[in-house]
Amino acid sequence: QVQLVESGGGLVQAGGSLRLSCSVSGSIVSLNHMGWYRQAPGKQHELVALINSASIATYANSVKDRFTISADNAKKTVHLQMNSLKYEDTAVYYCNANLWATGSLPRNDYWGQGTQVTVSS
Predict the structure, then answer these.
(1) What per-residue confidence (pLDDT) applies to 104?
(2) Which of 3, 6, 46, 72 would be a feasible disulfide site paired with 115, CB 3.0-4.6 Å?
(3) C-alpha–C-alpha distance, residues 16 and 55, integer Å
(4) pLDDT in the model for residue 106
(5) Nearest-5° angle of CA 34, CA 35, CA 40?
(6) Residues of the chain with pLDDT under 70
């Protein structure tokens, strides 16, 4: 059974930094990509950043030049370094992994439980 466990959320003042981490466990054949999504109250679930197995990263325009995603495929972990945080970054952040688990189809999405990030203005 695949599990994603997130850590690193919390409360920070505007302009501050936080680092989110996510560890993937289970019987995994291969990792396709990992990433972070977020959902703020009253808003849609949105992509924040993705990184694929070739370490190519994609960012939402709203976080470019402020957030950095990194991954260690061998350790099956993904991190999101968030700098210059803004009030509008407040949301629940969800770790996502698209992977091939033993006994499953090659491309399935798995999700963490979410971690709250609150930025005070």
Answers:
(1) 87
(2) 6
(3) 26
(4) 84
(5) 155
(6) none
Q: Which tokens sit at 113?
A: 């439980």
Asked if 67 and 58 count as a contact pair (C-beta separation under 8 A), the reply is no
The pLDDT mean for the chain works out to 95
Q: Give the pLDDT of residue 55.
A: 92
Q: What is the 3-state secondary structure (H, E, C) of the chain?
A: CCEEEEECCEEEECCCCEEEEEEEECCEEEEEEEEEEEECCCCCCEEEEEEECCCCEEECCCCCCCEEEEEECCCCEEEEEECCCCHHHCEEEEEEEEEEECCCCCCEEEECCCEEEEEEC
53 alpha carbon, distance to own chain's centre:
15
- Write the pLDDT tens digit of every residue in 23-45: 999 999 889 999 999 999 999 99
